[in-house]
Amino acid sequence: MKKFLWFKQISNNVKLERRLSLGEYKRAVSWSKYLVSSGAEIKGEGEEEWSADMSQLFIGNKFASGRHSRVYRGIYKQMDVAIKLISLPEEDGDLAAFLEKQFTSEVALLFHLHHPNIISFVAACKKAPVFCIITEYLAGGSLRKYLHQQEPYSLPLNLVLKLALDIAHGMQYLHSQGILHRDLKSENLLLGEDMCVKVADFGISCLESQCGSAKGFTGTYRWMAPEMIKEKHHTKKVDVYSFGIVLWELLTALTPFDNMTPEQAAFAVCQKNARPPLPSTCPVAFKSLINQCWSSNPNKRPHFEKIVNILESYAVSLEQDPEFFSSYKPSDGHTLLGCLPNCIAART
Which residues in 94-112 are b (16+ Cβ under 10 Å) and which e? Predict the structure, then answer.
């Protein structure tokens, strides 16, 4: 077992939620043999800037998994980290090539992203047939998990606003870098201990200049913009649509289209222009913003820069008037977004 020293369980002075089960340990060791280093950094061609020193990596318990990946909590150079191991199927060359391309794209994007509301990249290892991506570990888990622990419609509006602003700030930065996330949903939004939201999982993200059509795209139907479902050309506005769905989740703490299968939801969105029902208690301010974000016409959806401005204006108004959300009404003949600056000025 000497060659698996890097894989040892984290020392007793670092408390994890639980130890690996025997089955998990055996499966993890079977993956780890592809990553084992004699102590030197593992570097491949063109990877010098982000390659991990595997001798400094210690893996703890698994806390998430996908069809081709496992995510573990661990320690890397005395830092709490999340470790995603991606397994390339040796029997399916096309899928392996796709997963390798996805890995390379995700690492390339993450390496250059630095923002308080974007998950922090730490290092990576590319050694087929198992790849490894190391990011900061966020103890709060996913926003989706948090919401499902709450009673429906129970989140205070000031918390909804705070979480929405975190997400919008992260997405504004991402778009300023010319990047589309393309899979924005509550499951891919992570919470820190201070309830700070960070955008995560860039496996199917792309540069806007390189996205092309959505043919063969594998996103998540319940959050997916209609033009993506139809496999048409898409822009940054697909993320704005998804943000509208996430904002609905914050207000309801429910799963969108939970009475439908994902395929039924996709059909309803495209063919019937269906959207998740807004609760009758939804403030007009949020209702107007959501309706614009998930408009079927991408050109009518606001950019994240505008969304941030709107939400920040809400925050200022709420601080000045605790009853802002219940008392606010847009001016006649104007949309909420168009009249907002004047309305805010009138209140100050």
Answer: eebeebbebbebbbebbee
pLDDT tens-digit series, residues 46-88:
445 788 888 899 999 998 887 788 899 999 999 999 999 988 8
Which residues have a catalytic role annotated?
Answer: 183
Among the CATH numbers 3.30.200.20, 3.40.50.620, 3.40.50.1820, 3.40.50.980, which is that of 2-136? Answer: 3.30.200.20
Q: Among candidates 182, 256, 181, which has minimal Cα distance to 224?
A: 182
- Measured CA to CA, the distance from residue 75 to residue 58 in angstroms comes to 5
What's the rounded Cα separation, in Å, for the pair 107 and 130?
14
Q: Note the pLDDT tens digit of each residue in 6-41.
A: 333 333 333 444 444 445 444 444 444 444 433 333
Q: How would DSSP label each residue in 312-327?
A: HHHHHHHHH-TTHHHH
Answer yes or no: are the C-beta atoms of 85 and 64 closer than 8 Å: no
Does the reported pTM lie above 0.90? no
Tell me how long the chain is.
348
Q: Which of 342, 192, 185 is nearest to 276 (CA)?
A: 185
3-state SS class at 13: coil
Identify the band that residue 218 occupies on the pLDDT scale cut at 50, 70 and 90. Answer: low
**Tokens at 255, concatenated:** 């799963």
Rounded Cα gap, residues 345 and 348, in angstroms: 5
Residue 331 CA from chain centroid, whole number: 35
Find the helix or strand (DSSP H, E) in which 85 lies. strand 79-87
d(C-alpha 186, C-alpha 190), whole Å: 8
Assess if CATH 1.10.510.10 describes domain 143-347: yes
